């Protein structure tokens, strides 16, 4: 997976002002990390409620589009907080991330998760009924579980 | 209490857990996932009381549908948290952020107890006339703030800015964290 060009870019990213600034502070990384975790909780809540509804585990008898309307802004806010805090965390240890398998799993999972939510799950919630939505809910929940768990494993790399 | 933590740290399972290559990270990952489940669902339960979300659903209905997930998240979070403590009992016991976290959990628990006791009695009334008392709204916000602080302090446990084996450190930190320190070693150093 080592690509010289990509690794060079990661070195440059780590040397950016933000990367240096976060790295040079003893408390900034943990504080940003805490808010990253809160962002994950907010996003997690919106994902769990929507996906469990699709899997018929909760909110049986409640309109699925109503649940989507109520949770979508929390998804956007949680995701924004994750990105806003995740970028400085990444910049402070970009090279470590480059060599971390968990980081790549998280990033690929994140991209697939966002694309899945906006291009598959949400449009199908509006258009489809029945068993397909159970599968959609299960896939979405699984992707986000992998994203959250692999994120924690970056710290163990 | 410190003796108990020392005894725990010397048990076979504690050592095995602490030294395991995969089990400890898996438990910690499960702890993080359960925090997401707990905090994420609590967010909706609490914000429903402030009329910010799910206004078409009654409070009783919202609690019935979402609260079991919150409770499940809390149980998994507690079991994995206990295991994480058991893996490194002495360091955790003497960690200032661990102590802050425990105090916050107790305060959040007391808030939750009174909050749910009142809610179980009065939720049906609020369902009918849709007027939630101001004190309940405040309690819901307090709950979210307290649990956010629990998450923040929990994350800080991993960092060793203050640790009994990092001496010299201020006396008040040593006293707050039950560090047993021989101050005669630091004579002549400012503040000791």
Entry keywords:
heterodimer; A: 157 residues; mainly alpha; 7 helices; B: 192 residues; elongated
Could you explain the architecture of this structure?
The complex is a heterodimer of chains A (157) and B (192). Chain A has 157 residues and is mainly alpha-helical. Chain A has one domain. Chain A has helices spanning 4-14, 17-24, 28-54, 64-92, 94-98, 101-127, 131-154. The longest helix of chain A has 29 residues, at 64-92. Chain A is elongated and about 55 Å long. Chain B has 192 residues and is mainly α. Chain B has one domain (2-178). Chain B has eight helices and no strands. Chain B has helices at 2-9, 12-19, 23-49, 59-87, 89-93, 96-129, 134-156, 171-176. In chain B, α3 (23-49) runs antiparallel to α4 and α3 runs antiparallel to α7. The mean pLDDT of chain B is 89. The interface between A and B is medium-sized, with 34 and 30 residues.
Mean pLDDT of chain B: 89
Largest sheet of chain B: none
**Class computed from helices, strands and strand pairing of chain B:** mainly alpha
Q: State the domain count of chain A.
A: 1
Tell me how many strands of chain B there are: 0
Q: How many helix segments of chain A?
A: 7
- Percent of residues in helices of chain A comes to over 70%
Q: Determine the number of helices of chain B (DSSP H or I, runs of at least 4 residues).
A: 8
Shape descriptor of chain B reads elongated
Q: Strand-and-helix sequence of chain A, N→C? A: HHHHHHH
Q: Tell how many strands the DSSP assignment of chain A holds.
A: 0
Sheet with the most strands of chain A?
none
Distance between the termini of chain B: 26 Å
Helix content of chain B: over 70%
């Amino acid at each position: 997976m080592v690509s010289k060009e990509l690794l060079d870019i990661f070195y440059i990213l780590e040397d950016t002002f933000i990367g240096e600034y976060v790295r040079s502070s003893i408390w900034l990384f943990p504080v940003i990390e805490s808010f990253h975790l809160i962002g994950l909780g907010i996003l997690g809540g919106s994902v769990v409620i929507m996906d469990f509804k699709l899997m018929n585990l909760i909110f049986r008898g409640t309109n699925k589009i109503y649940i989507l309307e109520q949770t979508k802004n929390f998804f956007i806010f949680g995701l924004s907080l994750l990105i806003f805090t995740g970028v400085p965390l990444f910049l402070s240890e970009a090279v470590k991330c480059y060599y971390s398998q968990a980081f790549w799993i998280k990033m690929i999972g994140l991209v697939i998760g966002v694309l899945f939510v906006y291009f598959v799950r949400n449009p199908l919630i509006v258009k489809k009924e029945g068993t397909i939505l159970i599968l959609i809910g299960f896939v979405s929940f699984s992707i986000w579980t992998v994203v959250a768990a692999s994120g924690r494993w970056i710290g163990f790399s | 209490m410190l003796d108990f933590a020392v005894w725990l740290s010397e048990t076979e399972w504690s050592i095995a857990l602490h030294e395991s290559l995969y089990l400890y990270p898996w438990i910690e990952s499960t702890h993080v996932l359960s925090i997401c489940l707990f905090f994420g669902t609590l967010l909706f339960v609490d914000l429903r009381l402030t009329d910010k979300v799910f206004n078409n659903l009654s409070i009783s209905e919202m609690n019935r549908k979402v609260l079991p997930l919150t409770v499940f998240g809390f149980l998994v979070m507690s079991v994995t948290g206990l295991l994480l403590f058991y893996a490194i009992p002495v360091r955790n016991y003497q960690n200032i952020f661990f102590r802050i976290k425990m105090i916050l959990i107790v305060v959040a628990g007391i808030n939750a107890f009174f909050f749910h006791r009142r809610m179980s009695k009065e939720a049906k009334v609020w369902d009918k006339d849709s007027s939630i008392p101001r004190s309940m709204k405040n309690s819901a916000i307090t709950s979210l703030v307290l649990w956010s602080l629990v998450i923040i302090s929990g994350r800080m446990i991993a960092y060793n800015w203050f640790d009994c084996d990092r001496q010299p450190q201020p006396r008040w930190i040593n006293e707050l964290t039950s560090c047993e320190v021989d101050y005669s070693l630091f004579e002549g150093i400012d503040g000791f």
